[in-house]
Each structure stands twice: as C-alpha cells, then as structure tokens.
Amino acid sequence: MNVTITVDAAKKLGPLKPIWRFFGADEPNYAYMKDGKKLLKELGKLGKPQVYFRAHSLLCTGDGTPALKWGSTNAYTEDAQGNPVYDWTIVDRIFDAYLKNGVRPYVQIGFMPKALSVKPEPYQHAWTPKAKYDEIYTGWAYPPKDWDKWGELVYQWTAHCVKKYGKAEVESWWWEVWNEANIGYWRGTPEEFRRLHTVAIAAVRRALPTARVGGSDVAGDGGQFQRDFFTHCLKTGSPLDFVSFHAKGAPTFVDGHVRMGIAAQLRTIDAGFKIIASYPELKDKPIVIGESDPDGCAACQGPQLGYRNSTMFSSYTAAVFARKHELADRHGVNLTGALTWAFTFENQPLFAGFRQLATGGLPLPVLNVFRMLGKMDGERLATQSSAGLTLDAMMRDGVRSASPDIAAQAALAGKKAWVLVWHYHDDELPGPDAEIALTLENLPKARGAAKLTHWRIDETHSNVFTAWQKLGSPATPTPAQYAQLEAASTLEQLAPPASITIEAGRVTLPFTLPRRGVSLLQLEWR
C-alpha cells in the first residue's frame, strides 16, 4: 500500500517532552542483580533528561530474596520491646544501583512492614503466573497499627536519603505513597489511605521541605476515589507537586492470534486527564502516568500476552506514545511522564513471555523504541499521513479494521530533524508492506546537502527475538551465540548514512516499512 506522510517544519506544536523516560517493576531487588544492573546501564544511556525508576515493596519485610511480584528490604523491624529498628542496607543497595547507572528514584513509599501491619499474617505471598491475582494481597497491603510509627519510618527514611545522597540529589526525585490503593493493593478504607498518604507526605516534607511529592498512582483513571483524594489534598493543604494515575491496554487472544487493546489504554488516559483538568488547581501540575502499558500484569504469562517478545510490543509503543501527547494537548494538561512498567526477570528462561525490556541481559525490540525516542529532541512538528488513524477513531475502535495505523511523530532542534514512523495494527496477522513517501517541508535549511540516518525495528533489524529463533531457540546459548544475540539486540541502521539534497526547504524520502515496523529518520545539516 502507498502512504504519503508530510512533516511541516514551520508548524510547531510545542516542546517534545521526553515523557518516555520513566520505567518500573514489581520486584525491586532485581535492580542490583546481574541482568538488572546491565539493563539499568542501558536505561541510563537513553539520553537526557534523567531516566527515573519506580518499584514496589521498598519497605516490605524480608531478606531481599526476590520472587515474582515480590521484593523486600527489611527496612523496618521492631525489637522485643516494640521499639523501631531501621536498616537501610538493602534499600540503599537498590538506590545505589539506580544512581550508579544514571537512573534516579521515583520513590514509592510502601508497602507496610510486617511489624507495623494490622494484619501481619500471612505476610509474604508465593504467587506464580498460574495463581489467582488476588493471592498477592497479604499482610503488606494493610494499614499501620501505629500511625505515628508509620510517619516516623517515612521521616527517618527520607532523612537518611538526604544525608547519604545530598539535598540537591534527593530534591530531584519523585515521592508518592503506595500503589493502586483503589484496588486490592490497599486493604484499608479510602479514608485510611488518605490518612496514610497525608502522614507519609508530611514526614517526607519534614525531612526535606523541598521534596517533590504527589499521587495517588491509582489503578485506571481512579474515578471517584481519585476525585476524593484530590479534594482531600486540596482541602487539607497536603501538597501535590504532581499527580498520577495508571492506564493499561486490554489484549485478547482470538482466532489463534493476539489482538491488542490500544483503545482501552487511550480511553483510560483520556478519562484520567479529564478528571485532573476539572480541578483548576491541578490543571497545570505535572502528570505522570505511573504505569502505562499494553496490559495489566508484567509477571503474568498467557497466549493473549504473546506480543511481548515481538515487534507487536515495539510498534504498539511507538503508536501509543504519540497519542499520549495528543491527548495532553486536547485536555490542556501538563503530561510530564508515562511510566513503562517493564524491567527484567532474573534467572528466568529466555523469552519466557513476561512483560520486560530485556531477557537474560538481551534487550528486546521494545527497548529499541526507547532508544529511538531518546534521540529525538526540540519542538514537536505537525504531521499528516494518508494512512494515520485519528485519535477519536483509535479510542473508539482501536486499530481493527482492514487499515493499519501508519503515522509519524516529528521534532526539530537546531540543525537536526527527526521523524518516527510506525506501521501498527491491533491484530498480530500478516499484512502488506507500506511504501512510504515521507516529505519534510519548510525546513530551516533552504537548499544544500544533508545527512540522512535511518534506524529500523522490524523482523530482521534490532530484533533479538527473531535472531534467537534463527539460532534454533537455544535455552542456553553458547558464548558465540550470545555474542550474536547481543549484536542483534542493538538499535540497527537500515542502511549506512547517506547524503541527500534539500531543495526549497523540502525533501522527500521514500522507503518501505513492513507491518509492525518502526523507523526513525534523522536529518542533519550544516
């Protein structure tokens, strides 16, 4: 199919905010393990500004041994007389791993230490992907038996961070309380959660008055729970430097193939923005979509989740991130971050079907989308595509008709322009290649030579999964095979950089883009 895409370099839409630069995981202890450290290093390389990481269970009781949907630090215990005992050894090790690799904490304050929980037993769950999801909600999910001790724990932790890392460093972090308190992650009442939040945030600010604090990181748009939370904070004066909620897609498995649910994620973002925009006091606050993903459970497995190793995940990510910018524009809100809840799972089989950025130390195709996004900078530019779906159509129907979504996002900074182009469809079925005619017009350079660099993610480029399959899917690759896979996991150029000619501020770039492919084209001139 023939597709024309036009980028107007004279029509600027505002700054291209690096909303992609947030990541997270259920399992905090993976951060300092072998593959975790390797992946953190890759995240830290993604580009400026700073990459942030959010993790559950930073205050859970235990020896730091990770498991699926579980982690612990033993930060708080009590002696025989009930006096607090603080131990920051493991949580420091987690934050040290972030900072050493160029990543900063998006600090989730939680969950409840065993010695503070009103219902401490059972405490650590033993969840597996075959278990029922609600089996994870054990003693860590309950309110504190002593609110003063809860507040003092948060104060001592914050004060320790300021002492260890310095005031300026900790001021750059984000601090929020708990996770998805409107569902099973919180076993108290909404009123008790608001108290949990208020006490914790007051403790953070007591230790560091300039700390950046917010919330509530609800599941979905949060509905009335989120509204009641905002009303409480505004009424009581509990500070909100930023606001947050979560948005997930809804993939299914139909007729033997994966069908993504991009519409569900976009509708949730739309609803979340609408709630925030309805509060004049909050409309200009930075928004972080604290978990923003194609599905709801990174550690789950199943046929409907079969998109994760493939270019379904990477093309979905390119398409949905561009629409997040559009939704923020529509509501006039300050979207600052959209956090991808994906990291890696240590000591698991290669390509085991978890939602992750890398497997066994090997970056998956989706990480290469973030490498592409990390190259872009400057002002967003207006784009038009003959095969791009409208935002309203995608929110209503997803991408499920005969026509795919073939569209672009573009940016301009100084003497460089970038165009990110994707070829996406909700259904993981074969489809024809797109013959793209990409035109950039009204460029700052009227005429002359420019350098074109073209990066690509598809079945044969920047794709460690298909490289592994071609090797026969070895469970334990040899050193030579692993080296091949590492090479295949990098962001690859489609062809060597080329010199092209700009005439009258305009250039047309033809190329072929297969189904589920993503291209980044960079144009640079003197």
TrEMBL record:
EC nos: 3.2.1.37
InterPro entries (alphabetical): GH, GH39_cat, Glyco_hydro_39, Glycosyl_Hydrolase_39
UniProt-annotated catalytic positions: E180
Keyword Hydrolase: yes
GO molecular function: xylan 1,4-beta-xylosidase activity
Top-level taxon of the source organism: Bacteria
GO BP field: carbohydrate metabolic process
Key words, A-Z: Glycosidase, Hydrolase
EC class: hydrolase
Glycosyl hydrolases family 39 N-terminal catalytic domain ranges (all copies): 4-490
Family that this chain belongs to: Belongs to the glycosyl hydrolase 39 family.
Protein name per Swiss-Prot or TrEMBL: Xylan 1,4-beta-xylosidase
Organism: Armatimonas rosea
